[in-house]
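Researcher: Structure prediction, please.
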Amino acid sequence: MNRQEEIDRLRQRVADARSDCEAWRKSGPEDRYHEAYVNAKALELELDEKLFQPVRRRPA
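Model: Predicted structure follows.
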């Protein structure tokens, strides 16, 4: 999997986690909401790290 595919996959996982978080916030137990919130934030951090890490180029 190349870097762009990893970023795209992480973006989808963040979107899914945010959706889960919102669903739990509206109708679920508070502890489930907090768990989903922490998961979403962790994925956002992972995405930020991936976006801002230097691109490694292969030697020519």
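Model: The radius of gyration is 15 Å.
Researcher: Thanks, that helps.
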